[in-house]
Amino acid sequence: MSDLSQRADELRRTLNRYAHEYYVLDAPTVPDAEYDRLFQELQAIELAHPELRTVDSPTLRVGGQPLPQFEPVTHQIPMLSIRTETDVSEQGALAFDASVRKELELSASDAAIEYAAELKFDGLAISLRYEDGVLVQAATRGDGATGEDVTQNIRTIKQIPLRLRESAGGAVLVPKVLEVRGEVYMRRDDFEQLNARQRELGEKTFVNPRNTAAGAVRQLDPKITAARPLSFYGYGLGVVEGWDLQPDTHSGILAALAEFGFPVCDIREVVQGGVGLVAYHARVAALRDDLPFDIDGVVYKVNSIALQRQLGFRTREPRWAVAHKYPAQEALTVVEAIDIQV
Ligand code: NAD
What we know:
D-amino Acid Aminotransferase, Chain A, domain 1; alpha+beta; Helix Hairpins; disordered C terminus
């Protein structure tokens, strides 16, 4: 037992260091697959021995501390994590469906659950607040409860509307308050071009699109952000006030976000039951190398907002969503640290 307790302690210290390098400094020193492997080992120990779980465990926390250089933003609705399914085979999708059905106390004869399946973009989560249709604040996720105010930087990203578009005929009326949550990321071709430019200038090249995008958003000088080619996909909502026609499905919300003028990824599907999730996972597996941007797996979300509410949350993640990854392609190599440049 003391060996196990020692191992849990070692994992916590290592994971907390990796999380700080990744979330706070945007400069990871190990590949994600290695972080995920250690995270799952700690989770398994804590599940078997809850008495070994401590309050500083990375399994209980979201992201990293916001940097003091930025104004803090309190998230009225926390920006949570998503549980990662440990089984990367198709069984992982079936296991998630089974867990949802169990939570909802459904029997085999009950109808299949409808899911919204989408890509897990590999970038930085952002919450965009619109009041009367105008972008007033943009914040990072930070530790989930408090993020960093990066409004001036986000304003430089051309794909993010400064004002919501009112759809023709007023079918989608602009809400009083709308927080749109989504991912800022960098396309692979933009990343290559950026590095080509760095080489021409004799400057240091960047390590990967994810950390380059995250580092670009968390700059103190918006001019630096503006010089980096960033893209955005919307995937959800935070606070909403005064939206009479708010859709009652996740897929309906994504369609409305597209109407408001946000880029929403087309590689999304509404599917029925675990079988539908398996088919989506396989479809994305076949095309992921050819995508113009990196992904970190796929995400399955229960499509009905009423069922999402019924399912609710665990400490750091909703019960109605899961991330399903693909077998890791990265070898364990030490990633060259990049400067945060703030
Ligand atoms: P997470 O696994 O908690 O998932 C939630 C995040 O997914 C959201 O905040 C959002 O940014 C993102 N996301 C992308 N597409 C989405 C979609 N369609 N719908 C909803 N959310 C979507 O995210 P995390 O805590 O940022 O962890 C991501 C990965 O970071 C982990 O899998 C881990 O491998 C990696 N990580 C690596 C290191 C390292 O040292 N290499 C350290 C910490 C974390």
